[in-house]
Amino acid sequence: MEIGVEDRGNVLVLKVSGRIDHLNASAFHEALTPHLSHCSADGTPIVLDLSGLDYISSAGLRIFMIVAKQANARGGRIAVAQMQPLVREIFEISHFHLVYEIFASTDDALAAISSTTTTTA
Amino acid sequence: MQIRFWGTRGSLPAPLTAADVRAKLVAALTEVQGRSLETPAAVEAFVAGLPLSIRGTFGGDSSCVELIDGENTNHVLCDMGSGARRYGVEMLRRHGPDNPQTYHVFMSHTHWDHIMGFPMFPPAYLPGNRIIIHGCHAEIAGAFHRQHGAPSFPVEFSQLQAAIEFVVLKPDTTTEIAGYQVTPLLQRHSGDSYGYRFEKNGKCVVYSTDSEHRTEQSEEAERFARFFNNADLVIFDAMYSLAEATSVKEDWGHSSNVIGVELCQMANAKRLCLFHHEPTYSDSQIEDVLHKTRRLEEITRAETPLEIITAYDGLTVTL
Questions:
Q1: Domain boundaries, given as residue ranges, for chain A
Q2: 294-313 in B: which are within 8 Å (CB) of A?
């Protein structure tokens, strides 16, 4: 599992790749945590680009839930984009599509997030 | 070995309503759509082809599961939810009132939905019967005593005519009971709960309900994978969606279908049975969870398939 960081103007794009399961979920959380501190109502929204994510288990999804709660608590906005079909299906079966805004592409997510300051999820 | 489900709902019994039955009739008749159903056999075949959510119901009784072994004259049961009433009635019908029987009951824990069937369990009222209640909670006897007598029930525990014994088991320790090798395991639940691994003649069934999992803690995930290892059947608390279990219902002590699939795949188990259904779910919602769980297994399968079934009151599984 790797996380690439890209500053796209007023939005932070975190590109997640590899697999996230019970063996590396904690490491994934630790890697995300520094970036969350700026995700607040008047801070930097985050787009998680999941195009390189091959698989996610319940352990990884729990981290996604924790991250969503942390962002929401600060009034921040976080979305996911460009999921591979398998990951998208896991998200839907787990009902995480009810937790996160999901966009077909990172550009779609950036456009949506940049166009509004309201909080979601 | 056979497993018979007498109660499969979580938290509270959930009987069908008149509106539920009417909706099933409407759905069934809608499915007819020009078919010729002129003979009883044609009607039977048509009904048999309908999904369970239309032709029947997953049922509404709370947790009660029977282990059946042809060699064993003792009866073995997991939990005493409301399903224990029908089980007890069936035992009386089958054996009669003058033919004393021995019952071994393994208790996951003593929350209300898991003990509420005992006051309505007919064998407890008949002299000569022996009921041995096994569990890992030190206060297990007190929980059973407390729900009898005023102000909760008209019959005091002391008035029950069967010989009733309580046996406190030690977690992680295998004991031979009623012909089975039985191993309890501590689970995450309010007040603790315990799963049971039963092994006999090369077959294995694991009863693991009312158990919340934190699979991001790899040691915990691996502990359960060892407990489920190579099981022929894992009966698993799949009460919530994963999103619910990790958010609004976190720390409510229950799990999800997604975690059941993952742990069974890690354990190389053969069959996963979704159990402890959310009482607010309709039959069609439970069926939808089953279909989605099968799809999850399909897209995450490594090599050996894991069969996914869902429990309903009256289901019998042969191992």
A1: 2-120
A2: 295-296, 299-300
